[in-house]
């Protein structure tokens, strides 16, 4: 079985709408994966997710180990619309739970950490694939399913801004991975 035979992950939430982005990166999957998992460096390159850190379940303080693993809680500070200028926007914060971290099939996923999933739920996937047989390029694919009652409001007011944010992150990831040695 090749990576092209792997099905997209099954949706574990009901979805009102989906945001997607994809880009070809002139770097091997391992390098792109390292950039994705280096949460501490997000502030240097990511205009959408300005910070991402693994935090304690109990008191929400950052953990010493920032190693991604399923079940760990992450806190993201988001800029919508995307910008590298932290002074220009206060941004928003979201707490998520890592659900899938697979360095073999290069899949990373999390879901919104809320007990009121009927109100709002979200599930984000990021997958890396080879650009083609014998090709050193990587295809980065990401999508987020949004569901629950508030997803209708988010779709109406924020869909375009979220799409712009996903595309900005994809382009920034490409730039970062292609220049990292």
Automatic annotation (TrEMBL):
<protein>
    <recommendedName>
        <fullName>Coenzyme Q-binding protein COQ10 START domain-containing protein</fullName>
    </recommendedName>
</protein>
<dbReference type="InterPro" id="IPR019587">
    <property type="entry name" value="Polyketide_cyclase/dehydratase"/>
</dbReference>
<dbReference type="InterPro" id="IPR023393">
    <property type="entry name" value="START-like_dom_sf"/>
</dbReference>
<dbReference type="Pfam" id="PF10604">
    <property type="entry name" value="Polyketide_cyc2"/>
</dbReference>
